[in-house]
Amino acid sequence: MLVKYKLGYRTKVHVIRLREFPLNISVLEVYEKLIKENRHKELLGQIPKIQLIRLLSILKDLINGQSLEECLRINAELECISPNEDLNKADDETLERKKLVMEETFERNRVRPTDPDFEYDIAVDFPQQVETSGWDSDFSDF
Fold it and tell me: Is the pTM of this model over 0.70?
């Protein structure tokens, strides 16, 4: 794996060797293992987690024999969040990737107090449409 970055006016390339990429463990475990290595900790700590996980996932799929187009399609599906999707049924790796996408979207849309269009106290009127339910309308049990 190559990490290319700029340091001042110079462009540097750092080679990270992934010896015998483990196919029997999840991408999240490979990510944690890479981050914990003292040799690459500082450099990889500056790269967004979602970006590294995406790269490792594509690499793992390519090693398993899938085409690049298939790998990219699978990653695009994992990073697409549908409001109708039941995340309770997702596996740990899928859930973690969905959480990272949601966190990235939240941070991108968040309005901070230092932003020029920040308003402190916004009053919002919600419609007073009250729904009744059968379970809370009968007071004869008391």
Answer: no
